[in-house]
Automatic annotation (TrEMBL):
GO BP terms in the entry: chromatin organization; response to salt stress
Chain intervals for the UniProt region annotation (Disordered): 84-115
Species of the source: Manihot esculenta (Cassava)
Coiled-coil intervals, chain numbering: 9-36
Designated name of the protein: SGF29 C-terminal domain-containing protein
Keyword terms, alphabetized: Chromatin regulator, Coiled coil, Nucleus, Transcription, Transcription regulation
Length: 268
């Protein structure tokens, strides 16, 4: 192996290390922006706010860095392949093992093509295994959306699909037993953590949300009357749509960890 060959490999390794460090820095900034927007989503409506444009710039930087990482990684692999001896015919078993290793490296390379934000999202989805989440289990052609509390059984990183279990289906469900569904990421909303109230978005009065109706495992559209912060409890005071009693909408208390943002385009 010549000195120029070694120098090229070392240079590519240093470049790869630099790119990954930059990706980590950008990802930290993206996570900070996500936390800010989750805590105060109304900030984007204020005149002069540049949160969304800043987030777009960060996503673009993350995408460029990820693509550069793939390019440098492939170049490094080519340098190593060109220098490694092919070996005599008697080393067929070793070459097979090398091929398997290359396949694993290719899969890792495919994953690295994703932006850091997307990889972070996939990790978050995988961490939901065993957790209860809100899930839309109705088809795209349904007249209205139906959301239920389900338990995450598995998350497939390749298909980006959740396997979930409806532990308490309604009386009108066929069979009357527990049912499993395979749902895309767009049909799943994680609940806030019970043991971390500080990370929960503080939906202001008048904000439309999706919340678990007391005594059920179904979620419905509701309007915030008072958030936990003002009530000094861990419960929202909500008015659910179509929950009229004696000509008025009763105000119902719902724990903060059973309240999520209303999905865009919600039909109910």
């Amino acid at each position: 192996m010549s000195s120029p060959d070694i120098a090229g490999i070392l240079e590519s390794s240093r470049e790869l290390d630099r790119l990954r460090k930059e990706q980590e820095e950008v990802l930290l900034e993206i996570n900070k922006m996500h936390k800010k927007l989750n805590a105060t989503p109304e900030v984007v409506e204020k005149p002069g706010d540049n949160s969304l444009s800043r987030l777009k710039i960060l996503y673009t930087q993350a995408k460029d860095l990820s693509e550069n990482e793939v390019t440098v990684s492939n170049n490094l692999l080519n340098l190593l392949d060109a220098l490694l001896p092919s070996g005599p015919p008697g080393q067929q078993r070793r070459r097979i093992g090398s091929d398997q290793k290359r396949k694993r490296m290719k899969n890792e390379s495919d994953i690295s093509r994703l932006s850091p934000a997307m990889r972070n999202q996939l990790e978050a989805c995988a961490s939901l295994k065993g957790e209860q989440v809100a899930a839309r289990v109705t088809g795209n052609n349904a007249e209205k959306d139906e959301w239920f509390v389900v338990k995450v059984m598995q998350f497939d990183r390749e298909t980006k699909e959740f396997e979930v279990l409806d532990e308490e289906p309604g009386d009108d469900e066929e069979g009357g037993g527990q049912r499993k569904y395979k749902l895309p990421m767009s049909c799943i909303i994680p609940f806030p953590k019970k043991n971390d109230p500080s990370s929960v978005p503080d939906f202001p009065p008048g904000r439309h949300v999706l919340a678990v109706y007391p005594g059920t495992t179904a979620l419905y559209k509701a309007t915030v009357v008072s958030p936990p912060r003002k009530r000094k409890t861990d419960e929202y005071l909500l008015e659910f749509d179509d929950d009229e009693e004696d000509g008025a909408l009763p105000q119902r208390a719902v724990p903060f960890y059973n309240v999520v943002a209303l999905p865009e385009g919600h039909r109910q």
